[in-house]
Amino acid sequence: MNIPVKQVARLNTGTIDIMPESIVAGSETNIMFPVNNTGKVLLYNVMVSFVGDSIQQSSTYIGNIKPGETQNVDAMITGTTPTADDGKIKILITYEDENGVVSDPIEKEVTLMVTEPEETGADNGNMGEEPVDVQPTGFAKYGKILIPSVIVLLAAGAGAAFFIWKRRKQKKLAALEEINDEI
Predict the structure, then answer these.
(1) Tell me, which fold does domain 11-115 have in CATH?
(2) What's the number of CA atoms in the CB half-sphere (13 Å) around residue 143?
(3) Quick check: helix, strand or coil at residue 145?
(4) Three-state SS string across 63-98, please?
(5) Four-point Cα dihedral 68, 70, 71, 76, nearest 10
(6) Domain ranges of the chain
(7) Of 48, 56, 3, which is closest to residue 26 (Cα–Cα)?
(8) H or E segment at 51?
């Protein structure tokens, strides 16, 4: 005789970190938190969805979570419109059981403020701003030092090579004279 035992699937989330907590419309923020399987059954196809008035709705696939294990959520969320309310973003976590039945979403909330982009002035955004000093990079930055250094190194290498060549030539001549003296 078989008696089916149904285990209740349970999960819990850790601290939800959002960096930065305030963004400009059109930019992104990073949301990270752990999802713990606190039940005794495997959670299949865990999905995390982000829903809010001021963000682009998105979903992140986490995968399967074994009993007692943790998977981390790391998602990038894009702000679309400035926040008109209290800035609450809903995080909906769903999973499937062993029969493929999708669970009711577990709902968490986080606060994200989306602000309007700064207005640019009539003169292409330079009103009231000081000109930015552009620093040269790469070869332009080090060219005044690099070229003379390379010339000095080449001259030193050529001088050393000439000195070594001259010395070897003198040793050869001395060896030949010694052989001639012995004969």
Answers:
(1) Immunoglobulin-like (2.60.40)
(2) 6
(3) helix
(4) EEECCCCEEEEEEEEEECCCCCCCCEEEEEEEEECC
(5) 140
(6) 11-115, 138-183
(7) 56
(8) strand 43-51
| 156: exposed, middle or buried (Cβ count in 10 Å: 0-12, 13-18, 19+) | exposed
Residue-level pLDDT, tens digit, the chain, 183 residues: 777 777 777 888 888 888 888 888 888 888 899 989 888 888 888 999 998 888 888 898 988 989 888 888 888 888 888 887 788 889 999 988 877 888 888 888 888 888 888 765 544 555 555 556 666 666 667 777 778 888 999 999 999 999 999 999 999 998 888 888 877
What is the model's pLDDT at position 134? 63
**Nearest alpha-carbon partner for 12 in 70, 51, 62, 58:** 70
Q: Exposed, middle or buried by CB within 10 Å (0-12, 13-18, 19+), for 37? A: buried
Instruction: Return the half-sphere exposure (C-beta side, CA atoms, 13 A cut-off) of residue 160.
Output: 6
Label residues 107-117 b or e (16+ Cβ within 10 Å = b): eeebebebeee
Structure tokens at 158: 């050529």
